Amino acid sequence: MKFLMSSTRGAQLGVLISLIGTIIGIVHYGLDFYTVLLIVAGYFVYGCLGIVVTFHRQLTHNSYKTHPVITKLFSILGCLGGTGSPLAWVAIHINHHLKSDKVNDPHSPLHKGIKIFALNYEHEVDTITKWKMRTLITDPFQQFLHRYYFGIIILWSILLYLLGGFYLMIFLHWAPMFVTAFMSNLVNYIGHKPNWWGGFRTYNLSDQSTNNWLWSIPSWGESWHNNHHRYPRNYSTGQGWQLDISALVIKLIKI
After folding, report:
1. Where are the domains of the chain?
2. Cross-strand partners of 254
3. Is the backbone of residue 199 left (phi > 0), alpha (psi -120 to 50) or beta?
4. Which of 42, 125, 164, 197 has its CA at 20 to 30 Å from residue 136's CA atom?
């Protein structure tokens, strides 16, 4: 059975459209303090609550448990981030950990360079990944999100347009969606570039995973990447002084 990534050409097109829409929106409406806050709020909802807290630390690594309603709601929010359905995102990230910085790593700058920013992740998921995802793959709700992923994104944009016109649609969805996609790829890149400014390694692992203090807040704690690769089942990636905003959120919702 082939499990085809939904975050391929469709996601590339979505990110491109969101970028173009964001540029047009800024030219037309300007970029005042309120607008920036709106973008940051959207990025927190889609990027932190949806992608980091739910797609990454719960659905991929099972690092904490929460109420099923929260998982479902945050899974929808993650879809609105535009980086793939939960099933697609989890499959890619499991492959990343299994093959970290090897030739078949889906997003290793060591072998793919800046091509990881193209979001070209179309491939067949191997048996080990399917086994690790066995519970998620058979979840009817997650199957629904995977099947209607693009429809959910379009429906949300339409709803925001009806509520607040192009301004709300662009700055509460398209712009945050672009920021979410850009930051997700940036973390994958700098998280395996030890020589980047702000980068350091706490653990001498077999891959190039790297912590980076400079991007810890903008990435919601995801840039403590070396820590994460050493302890992937920990819901917190920060250690000691290292701020992990996503872990603070998880503390509020975990059971």
Report:
1. 9-253
2. 66
3. beta
4. 42
Q: Are 92 and 106 in contact (CB under 8 A)?
A: yes
What are residue 212's DSSP bridge partners? Answer: 199
In 3-state terms, what secondary structure has residue 211? strand
Evaluate whether 140 touches 146 at the Cβ level (below 8 Å): no
- The span from the CA of 228 to the CA of 26, in Å, is 36
CA angle 13/86/150 to nearest 5° reads 35
The two three-digit tokens of residue 94, written as one number: 């499991």
State the virtual CA torsion across 167, 171, 172, 178 in degrees, nearest 10: 140
Residuewise pLDDT in 10s, the chain (255 residues): 344 444 455 567 778 889 999 999 999 999 999 999 999 999 999 999 999 999 999 999 999 999 999 999 999 999 999 988 999 899 889 989 998 999 888 887 877 665 544 444 445 556 667 667 888 989 999 999 999 999 999 999 999 999 999 999 999 999 999 999 999 989 999 999 999 999 999 999 999 999 999 999 999 999 999 999 999 999 999 999 999 999 999 999 999
Q: Tell me how far CA of residue 178 lies from CA of 20, 139, 143, in angstroms.
A: 10, 28, 25
User: For residue 223, how many other CB atoms are within 10 A of its CB?
Assistant: 29
Token pair 């048996």: residue: 127
52, HSE (Cβ side, Cα atoms, 13 Å): 35
